[in-house]
Amino acid sequence: MRKILIANRGEIAVRVIRACRDLGLTSVAVYSECDRTSRHVRLADEAYPIGPNAPAESYLHIGRLIAAARASGADAVHPGYGFLAENETFAAACRDAGLTFIGPSPEVIALMGSKTAAREAATAAGVPVVPGTDRPFDADASGSAIAAEAARIGYPVLIKAVAGGGGKGMRTVVAPDDLASAIRAARSEAGAAFGDTAIYLERRLMRPRHIEVQLLGDQHGTVLPFVERECSIQRRHQKVIEETPSPVGSPELRMRITSAAAAVARSVGYTGAGTIELLLDEEGRFYFLEMNTRLQVEHPITELVTGVDLVEWQIRIARGERLDLDSASLLTPRGHAIECRIYAEDPDAGFMPSPGRIAALTAPGGPFVRDDSGAEAGGEVPIFYDPLISKLSAWGSDRPQAIARMQRALREYDVRGIRTTVPFFRWMLAQRPFQDGEFHTATLDELLQQREGEPFSTPDEDVEEVAAIAAALHAYTRRGAGDTPPGPRVGRTLRVRRASLEGSPHDVVARAGWKQQARLEALRT
Amino acid sequence: MTFEIEAPSRTRSVRIARAERGYDVTVDGRQLPVDAVRVGSAAWSLLVGPAEAGHHGRRSYDVGIVERTAGELWVYVNGRVVPVRSGGQQWRRRRGEASRGQTPVVGSMGSDPATPQRIAAPMPGRVVKVLVKPGDAVAARQGLVVVEAMKMENELRAARAGIVRDVRVAEGASVEANTLLMVVE
């Protein structure tokens, strides 16, 4: 294996490029039209276009990806996460084209990718599952059949996409009246994201924790579990903060859940990196939720507490190497690690996506901080893809130290031009339930509800005064051409109301922007 | 020169004058010891407080400025964004705008039943489904239109019962933020 094509974009493509470089392998990026100048393209050794912006026309287009692999002479394909990472057709297409797919076999992806088949596999391996549908509901399943099943399982019920992941195609239904509209939304979202509208139902447990077990399996029958990750801080079923070990992760619990997870993976002959997701109830009982047959978004925190490079091992396993890691050390975390998923979303507007151009970006650094980012100053966050721009991780010798370092890093994170979830994280890390480690999967949604939309970024008096001074300085220095730095200011003019000495305020349009301004005004009316 | 700067909590009168070195800054008639140095085309380092011995707490602020629409600026102060306006209307973020729960309820501005609900796109995206047609009677919280952005589908619902008067978009259309999608009376 000498050259790896990365069938993905954004921060995960950057992560894989770095692993390739560490191993002395050549990396090949692919890009849609709007990603031509994205960070992953410029960082890779080689890059090939794969079509228009719509995911179905590029990052989900198997034919174009295989063609790019052929054109580049790559001998392996890394799918990252999302897009085609859990698509058995893609894995099979790679195999048929003589390319090594860096992940499990198409058969195992198909088996564990079907949430219902995965539940059967878990049950067969002796691991309990959450009560739910035995068989999926296809697109033509009748609404009344689904309603009957929901009534049998009992409300509140969760609708989930059979092909799902990342909270997409997932809806909670509290009362039968809301079922039809939730099914429609879930199916439509699942169809768009995964090309499969099949759904299934599951009982919604009350106040559970979301715990997961990272696994590596080689091609020689060895499957090794890692210390658990705690992923209960979720908003609308999407993880936003992960940490390891879990605040409730006693050695005894760790032994039980990691051996159960490894048993499920061994029973299906799992190879590569994968993750078993579990729900842990308040009595310490755990239930198999699903298996993700790919690298997980939150893999860096496991790397930080075990010292194992998971992406490097994905590649080495695909090359046929034996897992020669010390299994006991993988279950003995060194210190504590936390990750915050930084999204291009406006937390003050209901976490609406905030695409656009990043005017300036300063990422945090310093001791024990890691920033896995696909964004950079001058870059564009397009509307077509997941709005994750960075994963910020911090390590500490214990949980309080990891939290303090994360808070320091969040204080330094400065992204200008688009809104991000950084202000939300600054707030969240200070919350009592988080600080105390006492939370469950609905805690964040409950805390947000209590805030009733209160903005996260309300500035204090000093900050606001400084902002006002800076705005005035900005306007003042932009008046005369002499003070204005060179470069185009397309479509941007600054209108300032000038309080003149005579006391009759009138508009002053800065610099030669008045023409642009006049045009804008004309367009508006 | 004096500027009226509207920030979230209130408007301030900020007077800027060239000084021998740097600028003299007066806020609401109060002269402040500010050392302002430009560090980029839209970035400043501000040290606020007297530098002389005997004083403490000369605060350091790293400031960046992004021009949004005409007159609206996002000023970043030590990584915290402060939206300010230096023109016409008072800037104030509406509390609790957009979604708080599962799906955004739009048209909530018109809690007065006499006001038509104007259903607008909350973000740039694509209209994946139009669930109603003109003339349809809709119930409160009924889904009206589904807008997809960044792989998430957001169902926009009616804030209260009414009749669909006007549907301005078709399925598949790309829309900008604030594009009017439909009106419900």
Characterize the structure shown.
- Chain A is α+β, with helices and mostly antiparallel strands and 525 residues long.
- Chain A folds into five domains: 3-102, 3-Layer(aba) Sandwich (Rossmann fold), CATH 3.40.50; 113-130 and 207-334, D-amino Acid Aminotransferase, Chain A, domain 1 (2-Layer Sandwich), CATH 3.30.470.20; 131-203, Dna Ligase, domain 1 (2-Layer Sandwich), CATH 3.30.1490; 338-454, D-amino Acid Aminotransferase, Chain A, domain 1, CATH 3.30.470.20; 463-524, no CATH class.
- Chain A contains 18 helices and 25 strands.
- In chain A, the strands form seven sheets. In chain A, strands 9, 10, 11, 12, 13, 14, 15, 20 and 22 form a nine-stranded antiparallel sheet that branches. Chain A has a five-stranded parallel sheet with strand order 3-2-1-4-5.
- In chain A, helix 4 (88-96) links the parallel strand 4 (76-78) and strand 5.
- Chain A is globular, with a radius of gyration of 25 Å.
- By secondary structure, chain B is mostly beta strands.
- Chain B folds into two domains: 2-85, Glycoprotein, Type 4 Pilin (2-Layer Sandwich), CATH 3.30.700; 108-184, OB fold (Dihydrolipoamide Acetyltransferase, E2P) (Beta Barrel), CATH 2.40.50.
- Chain B contains no helices and 17 strands.
- In chain B, a hairpin with a 2-residue loop joins strand 5 (34-40) and strand 6 (43-48).
- Mean pLDDT of chain B is 80; it is low at 88-112.
- Chains A and B meet through helix 8, strand 17, helix 17 and strand 24 of A and strand 1, strand 2, strand 3, strand 5 and strand 6 of B.
The first-to-last residue Cα distance of chain B is 48 Å
Radius of gyration of chain A: 25 Å
Query: Given this structure, which CATH class of the largest domain in chain B is correct?
Result: Alpha Beta
Strand content of chain B: over 45%
Which percent range describes the beta-strand content of chain A?
15-25%
Level-1 CATH class name of the largest domain in chain A? Alpha Beta
Q: How many distinct domains of chain B?
A: 2
Secondary-structure-based class of chain A equals alpha+beta
Biggest interface: A-B, 79 and 76 residues
What's the mean pLDDT score of chain B?
A: 80
Rough shape of chain B?
elongated
Low-confidence stretches of chain A: 481-518
Estimate the helix proportion of chain A, in percent.
25-40%
**Total DSSP E strands of chain B:** 17
Please, how many helices of chain B?
0
CATH superfamily of the largest domain in chain A: ATP-grasp fold, B domain
Oligomer: heterodimer
* Overall 3D form of chain A: globular
